[in-house]
Design goal:
The chain is of the alpha/beta class and about 325 residues long. It folds into two domains: about 1-40, no CATH class; about 45-325, Rossmann fold, CATH 3.40.50. About 50% of the residues lie in helices and about 10% in strands. The chain is built from 13 helices and eight strands. It has helices at about 5-15, 20-25, 25-35, 60-70, 80-95, 100-105, 115-130, 155-180, 210-235, 250-255, 260-265, 270-285, 310-325, and strands at about 50-55, 75-80, 105-110, 135-140, 185-190, 240-245, 295, 300. Strands 3-2-1-4-5-6-7-8 form an eight-stranded mixed sheet, with helices on both faces. α1 packs antiparallel against α3 (about 25-35), α4 (about 60-70) packs across α12 (about 270-285) and α9 crosses α13. It is globular, with a radius of gyration of 19 Å. The termini are far apart. About 45% of the residues are buried. The structure holds NADP nicotinamide-adenine-dinucleotide phosphate. NADP nicotinamide-adenine-dinucleotide phosphate binds near residues 58, 143 and 248.
Length: about 325
């Protein structure tokens, strides 16, 4: 229930949306959650919802998994080593005040390295072999790299980790998502994508690599693909969503953007605030508009400046290119 009139709450939201700093920072989260009277995400009816969260040993992924467990959902998390998996389960038990045995009944981990497409195939095959239900995937894992490197699959790693590998994982698990509908696929994008248009010829930064630009291009591609997925598969009970968390203090931000962290330190969200809309998308029983970009529990515009507008033909070319690079065609 809104504590103030909905029109006033909407006005506050729009005023925040007109800025970047206030909207993305903890100020935006505090104002919106207060004036709109958000129900705590942990109070949502998550009981039994089974959510797969990639990169959940750290930052936003960890906060998302914790919120899902706190809402009585089940969290299947991916990590890159057994050690990180065990540490994460222990941390979840500690933070939620539960016994580790109790956490193991509600949470599990498996290994997944998005920089190797064979790892994605292996992970998906194990999932399908176990015949586990899947109510939502949160494509959270990601990183910003200072230098250009190619993966063992011969793709630029920012593009592979954020775009190609999650696309492959969704494709491989699509039969399960459709069978377990209503289900959701949620991609964690970034407000950084507002700075970059979609250009399929440069999505893997072939010659002009700059870490922040490559990252923004990959995040723009995630949002474009979200719409494409919704257009192509939306009628089958699977919802496709992208969410940007604003600016949140996480180990990833500390290590890859130390200057930004120093500059914005006091106004950064904490990881739970950054993860709020991600967990909300995974858990809310509300019917949501499909194929949209979300921030602070509302759909948002995908472009803030006209020169980033996406040509529909370019979006089609992206789909074809990613299918080729992932070696999959979800329609088949
Ligand atoms: N924090 C923000 O303000 C912010 C803003 C916009 C968007 N985001 C997005 O939010 C997501 C989470 O970021 P974060 O800030 O929480 O960063 P983080 O603390 O560094 O967490 C990133 C997670 O991704 C995993 N990961 C990295 N490379 C991987 C790979 N090749 N295969 C599988 N997992 C991999 C990491 O695992 P390891 O520990 O093994 O490296 C870690 O679990 C990212 O997609 C990021 O782009 C964050």
């Amino acid at each position: 229930m809104s504590r103030i009139r909905p029109s006033l709450a909407r006005g506050v939201d729009l005023a925040l949306e007109g800025t970047v700093v206030l909207s993305f920072s903890r100020v935006g989260y505090a104002l919106r959650s207060t004036v709109e009277g958000w129900e705590d995400v942990t109070a949502l009816a998550g009981t039994g919802r089974r959510v797969l969260v990639t990169g959940a040993n750290s930052g936003l992924g960890y906060a998302t998994a914790r919120a899902i467990l706190a809402a009585d959902g089940q969290a299947c998390i991916t990590v890159r080593t057994e050690e990180k998996g065990e540490q994460t389960l222990s941390a979840l038990a500690h933070d939620l005040g539960r016994h580790i045995g109790e956490i193991r009944e509600l949470a599990s981990y498996d290994l997944l390295d998005l920089a190797e497409l064979s790892s994605v195939h292996g992970f998906a095959q194990r999932w399908l072999d176990r015949g586990e239900r899947l109510d939502a995937i949160v494509h959270n894992a990601g990183a910003l790299f200072a230098d250009r490197e190619e993966t063992v699959d011969g793709l630029e790693r920012t593009y592979q980790i954020h775009v190609v590998a999650p696309f492959l994982l969704t494709s491989l698990l699509l039969p399960t998502l459709i069978a377990d509908a209503p289900s959701r696929v949620i991609s964690v994008t970034s407000g950084g994508m507002y700075a970059e248009p979609l250009d399929v010829t440069r999505v893997d930064s072939p010659t002009d690599y700059r870490g922040t630009v490559a990252y923004a291009r990959a995040k723009r591609a995630q949002v474009t693909l979200t719409r494409q997925w919704a257009r192509r598969f939306g009628g089958r009970g699977v919802g496709f969503h992208a969410a940007h968390p604003g600016w949140a203090l996480t180990p990833g931000v500390e290590s890859s953007l130390p200057g930004f962290r120093r500059l914005t330190g006091p106004i950064l969200r904490d990881a739970s605030q950054g993860a709020d809309t991600i967990a909300w998308l995974a858990l809310t029983p509300e019917v949501l508009e499909d194929g949209r970009l979300w921030h602070d529990r509302r759909p948002r515009l995908e472009h803030k400046v006209p020169w980033t507008r996406t040509d529909p033909a370019e979006a089609e070319r992206l789909w074809d290119r990613v299918c080729r690079d992932a070696g999959t065609d979800p329609h088949v």
